[in-house]
Structures are given as structure tokens and as C-alpha cells.
Specification:
Layout (H helix, E strand, L loop, with lengths): L6 E3 L4 E6 L7 H12 L3 E4 L11 H6 L2 H17 L4 E7 L1 H12 L3 E7 L9 H17 L4 H32 L7 E6 L9 H9 L5 E6 L12 H15 L5
Parallel strand pairs: 2-3, 2-4, 4-5, 5-6, 6-7
Antiparallel strand pairs: 1-3
Length: 251
């Protein structure tokens, strides 16, 4: 079984970190990363702890928001050690939470943004339902014994809402830390998001607009994981255009 891996695409001195979704992997943002590398950027796509394994249980056994934040810091430090002094950071869904936290806390992160990230309290029940359905399908695909699948699903059903509540709680101080942010922010909103309230992009833009230059782009027909969709190509073009204005490539 070939499991997903982190990626590190070499380019110029300006670097970009791309953070993936909850229960996803760097494959979520790999195509976006290649697009940005073609423009001349170095692009790092780390793996959140507990993700990318053969068993989704590891997300809960190994990971939590505080650990995923440390994963983000490690990615930043890796780029700094490698000599990158200008860094942008973008995240999809869960990844956007840590992208915005990094934008607020680190001077070397000069710009960044979110793709379908709830920085406000929203109903996550559809996230829970989707997650459990996908895990059921995955275990079935692995042809595990029915008793083992049932045991694993009981574990996941017990822990998913607890994890989503922990993420929501972690979001509150991150949201508060963004008040007064002055760095340029790119916000992408999927207009056909099937998991989260489709106003989250506008809410974040309105919250940041008094002090930060905000670019809000809407994508009609795009699903929650937009980078994987047919709208992903346009998203990559838009993020590339945004970056080349804010953090242009230098020889």
C-alpha cells in the first residue's frame, strides 16, 4: 500500500507552506503546490500527525490541535533553516486554522490565507457524518473482518465529535488573535460547500477588513475540498496571482 507523504518542492528563495484538511493528507494540496513551484516558489506540504496512515484511528490516537500546531511550526523552522526568509502559508479547511495562527504570530510569515476554513463557530455535523462514512468505506475496501470494522467504527463514532469540539475550542483564541491583523490575506470560498456554512469566507473577510488587505474569491460550483475539484485550477491561478503581487519571486 502506497501511503501519502509530505512534499517539498524546490524552487526559489520565496517559500510557501500548504496545510491540508482534517482527515486528509498533503495530496489535497499537492497539485496546488506544483502550480506554485512552476511560478518559482519553494513549496512545503507537511503531514499533520496521525494523518496519512492506513487506519484513521491514528488521527485521534496521535493527533490533536496542539500537536498539529507544532507540525506547522516545524514546517516553518524547516524553511528557515534552509534559508527561506520570506514565507507565505495557506491552509484548506482545518489547515487554514493553523495558517492564520502562523500569520498572526510569526513576522517571517508575510502573507497567507484560507480555503473553506471556519474561523467562527459553525455546525460541523456534516463533517462528522462524512468522516464516518468515508472511514466505513475505507475499512470495507481493505476487506477487514466485519467484527474488526464494527470495533473500529465504534471507536471513531465515540471520538469524532469530541475532536471536532476540541478544534472549535482551539479556534476561539486564534480568531481573537486575528483582530488588528495588517498582513495581506487571501480567502477562497467554495460556493457549493457541502460540509460547512458557505458564508464563512465572507465572515472572515468582514472581520479582517478593518485593518488587513483582504482578497476574497468565490468559486461557483466548488465543493468543500476545492483543491481536488475542477475549480482547483482556477484557485491555483488566483493564489499564484495573489502571491506574485505580495511576495514576488526574486532571483
Amino acid at each position: 500500500m502506497d501511503l501519502p507523504k509530505a512534499f517539498y518542492f524546490q524552487g526559489g528563495p520565496q517559500a510557501v507552506i500548504l496545510l491540508h484538511t482534517f482527515s486528509g493528507t498533503p495530496n489535497d494540496v499537492r497539485v496546488l503546490g506544483r502550480s506554485l513551484q512552476k511560478l518559482g516558489y519553494t513549496v512545503l506540504g507537511p503531514m499533520f500527525t496521525g494523518h496519512g496512515t492506513a487506519d484513521p484511528k491514528q488521527i485521534f490516537m496521535q493527533g490533536k490541535p496542539e500537536i498539529w500546531w507544532q507540525d506547522t511550526i516545524k514546517a516553518l523552522h524547516q524553511l528557515e533553516v534552509d534559508g527561506h526568509q520570506q514565507i507565505a502559508i495557506f491552509g484548506e479547511s482545518l489547515g487554514g486554522l493553523f495558517a492564520m495562527k502562523a500569520l498572526a504570530e510569526f513576522d517571517e510569515v508575510i502573507t497567507g490565507g484560507t480555503i473553506d476554513t471556519p474561523l467562527f463557530e459553525v455546525d460541523k455535523s456534516r463533517v462528522s457524518q462524512r468522516f464516518l462514512k468515508e472511514c466505513q468505506n475505507w475499512y470495507t475496501k481493505l476487506q477487514l473482518p466485519e467484527a474488526e470494522i464494527n470495533d473500529k467504527m465504534r471507536f471513531l463514532s465515540h471520538h469524532i465529535n469530541e475532536m471536532l469540539a476540541a478544534i472549535s475550542e482551539y479556534t476561539v483564541p486564534v480568531h481573537d488573535s486575528l483582530a488588528g491583523l495588517t498582513k495581506p490575506v487571501f480567502i477562497a470560498q467554495a460556493e457549493a460547500d457541502e460540509l460547512l456554512d458557505r458564508s464563512i469566507g465572507q465572515q472572515l473577510a468582514d472581520y479582517l477588513a478593518p485593518t488587513a488587505p483582504v482578497t476574497l474569491k468565490r468559486y461557483p460550483g466548488a465543493p468543500h475540498v476545492m483543491t481536488y475539484s475542477e475549480q482547483g485550477r482556477q484557485l491555483a491561478k488566483d493564489i499564484g496571482a495573489f502571491l506574485t503581487q505580495i511576495m514576488p519571486i526574486k532571483a
